[in-house]
Amino acid sequence: MRKKGIGMRKIFVGCLMAAVLATGCTARLGHFTVVSTKNIDWSRAAELKRASQKVQGSDNALMLIFIPLNGTWMPHLDTAIDNAIETVPGGVALLDAVIHSKFFFTYIINSSGYVIEGTPLIDPTLAAKPLPSNRIYAKMGKDGKISTEYLSEEEYLKRRDSLIARSR
Asked: Please, are residues 46 and 56 in contact by the beta-carbon 8 Å criterion?
């Protein structure tokens, strides 16, 4: 008599099929001394400061078969660079940057993107600009992009009270 259940052969074949149907890869595109998408006044280079910690930025495209799920068909390297630079107030470039390309492929869901990591170069005159308010409202859109706006104290309190009332 044969035992009922899934045999080891079926499990092996299933795992092999899953591995063949789903592949992914990360490739290093390069290591760069300076990377930027901003206009930099190099005559003021002596005033620019190097940040103490590295930052990371990315841009991704996610597709279901041939339908873009996050609003874009292709990731953009300049968007990944901007996302990294803009994590630091006054950031104008990345030093010692490493750029990676990544993708994940199945026959149903596909993802590709760029990831960049580097040390921010900061323009103190841009970083020193006072913020319009110390209350910032951030919202993520359906496309995955984050938008921010500065709020007055009274507008902040209104939105906070509205969110608290909705959560009850």
From this structure: no
**Counts of helices then strands in the chain (DSSP H, E):** 4, 8
Chain centroid offset of residue 69 CA: 16
According to DSSP, the residues that pair with 56 across neighbouring strands are: 117
CA angle (155, 160, 163) in 5-degree steps: 125
- Predicted pLDDT of residue 21: 66
Residue 60: name the closest of 48, 49, 73 by CA: 73
Q: What does each C-alpha distance from 36 to 83, 84, 121, 138 come to in angstroms?
A: 11, 10, 10, 25
Rounded Cα distance, 168 and 147, in Å: 26
Gap between the Cα atoms of 81 and 59, Å rounded: 9
Name the E strands within the chain.
23-35, 49-50, 55-64, 67-68, 91-105, 109-122, 135-140, 146-151
Cβ atoms within 10 Å, residue 25: 10
Mean pLDDT per 10-residue section of the chain, whose length is 168 residues: 65 72 82 94 92 94 85 89 93 96 84 95 83 77 82 86 83
